[in-house]
């Protein structure tokens, strides 16, 4: 699996699936969630409502899939990151679950290319360095014959630098 880092807006990325850092209501929010719903249009929210009616809220660490409305991706995978708190171990495990469950779902859908935002590092206040280590570790560990490329889409320069350092450590 190839791993890339890009600085930019995930709604503009051309992958089979993009991942949304949603909240458990699945009914939209701020940050990347708001951006995805704005750019993708009302179909995504309609799909989220249908999921809610079927299974209720989405628990932290879990992932669900919808269509991608007007976005160029085929799917949006919505995963609910943990709100950072002092239980570092519990928060870390839940963040790891977000990446793992999103990748498993993507694989089941036959997704070849997938883009992740830096889940939980905005409104949910997860420390950026630790979040990046968890994300990179989990993606590196994930063995797939189906997914060919994972792109980490960093919205801010700080995350971009952290990811670049983790993926291309200086000799
Ligand atoms: P969370 O509630 O999981 O912290 P946020 O959306 O607040 O979710 O932030 C998650 C990450 O997504 C942050 O690093 C934030 O800077 C980033 N982000 C915000 N908007 C976008 C966007 N359009 N594309 C990619 N990343 C974004």
From TrEMBL:
GO molecular function: hydrolase activity
Residue ranges occupied by any Macro domain in the UniProt entry: 1-171
UniProt source species: Chryseobacterium jejuense
Enzyme Commission number(s): 3.5.1.-
SUPFAM superfamilies to which the protein is assigned, alphabetical: Macro domain-like
Gene3D superfamilies to which the protein is assigned, alphabetical: Leucine Aminopeptidase, subunit E, domain 1
Protein name: O-acetyl-ADP-ribose deacetylase
Entry keyword set: Hydrolase
Domain of life, source organism: Bacteria
Keyword Oxidoreductase: no
Signal peptide: none
CDD domains on file: Macro_OAADPr_deacetylase
InterPro entries: Macro_dom, Macro_dom-like
Entry-linked PROSITE patterns: MACRO
Pfam families linked: Macro
Taxonomic classification: Bacteria, Pseudomonadati, Bacteroidota, Flavobacteriia, Flavobacteriales
């Amino acid at each position: 699996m190839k791993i890339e880092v890009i600085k930019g807006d995930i709604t503009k990325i051309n992958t089979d699936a993009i991942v949304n850092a949603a909240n458990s209501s699945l009914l939209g929010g701020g940050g990347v969630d708001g951006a995805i719903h704005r750019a993708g249009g009302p179909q995504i929210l309609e799909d989220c409502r249908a999921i809610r009616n079927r299974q209720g809220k989405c628990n932290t660490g879990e992932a669900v899939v919808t269509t991608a409305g007007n976005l160029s991706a085929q799917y949006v995978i919505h995963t609910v990151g943990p709100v950072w708190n002092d239980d570092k171990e519990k928060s870390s495990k839940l963040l790891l679950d977000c990446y793992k469950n999103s990748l498993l779902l993507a694989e089941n859908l036959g997704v070849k290319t997938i883009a992740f935002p830096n889940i939980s590092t905005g409104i949910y206040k997860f420390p950026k360095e630790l979040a990046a280590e968890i994300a990179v570790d989990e993606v590196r560990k994930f063995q797939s014959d189906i997914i060919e490329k994972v792109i980490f889409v960093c919205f801010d320069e700080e995350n971009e630098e952290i990811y670049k350092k983790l993926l291309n450590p200086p000799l």
